[in-house]
Amino acid sequence: MRTYKQLLLANQAWATELTDERADFFAQQTAGQCPEFLWIGSSDSRVSPEQMTQTPPGDMLLHRNMANLVKHDDHNLMALIEHAVTTLKVRHIIVCGHYGCVGSTAAVTGTATGSMAAWLDTARQVYEDHREDIDAQDGQEARVNRFVEVNVRDQLVNLARTAPVQQAFAAGAELFLHGWVYDIRDGLIRPMMEIDAATPLDAVPRPERVLLTTEERIAAGDEVLVAATTR
Ligand SMILES: [Zn+2]
């Protein structure tokens, strides 16, 4: 476990490395931002959007919450979407779920209490809306994986229905919404779906299954997971 002093030392090393590469790196940062991406993902400590996509400062706006939910009454996220789409004119918005999501697991099992239960009400609704598909999966791991996938779909549709996105679509702006899942077992992002101005939002299909269970992947000869289990 890193102590807080190590965080500060690492920060000094990081800033030094960047200025060694480009002396005016931080001077340029003060000129403003022109990010191309807005990332909406889970708060999970194992999911590091900038690190796993090697995105430098200035290229990606970030919003993270438990179970990567897009709620129209969440002023925190709605303010960011408005700013990102209307003012900064980002081209791509990504909603990314992930394997092993704690909030998603709680949404499927219905075990959350307190503030977590209150926050996850939207996720519980996703579970109810896709219950037939989710409950048809074999075992809890597969059910949570399926929830993660259909949850990204539903949140992406919620995102597409926000006023700033609808206005950008109507104005013919270059704006694309992407639904991805990140697999903490091998560090890879699996793209699932895309929504743009031409997508009929009332008929967005459920994505294909991309998060297979560990058992399924070992059976299929997945090298990373086979190596992990035979170590
Ligand atoms: Zn999560």
Automatic annotation (TrEMBL):
EC number: 4.2.1.1
Top enzyme class: lyase
GO molecular function: carbonate dehydratase activity; zinc ion binding
Xref: PANTHER family: CARBONIC ANHYDRASE
Family: Belongs to the beta-class carbonic anhydrase family.
Protein's name according to its UniProt entry: carbonic anhydrase
Alphabetically ordered keywords of this record: Lyase, Metal-binding, Zinc
Names of required cofactors: Zn(2+)
Lineage: superkingdom: Bacteria
Reactions this protein catalyses: hydrogencarbonate + H(+) = CO2 + H2O
Binding site for Zn(2+): 44, 98, 101
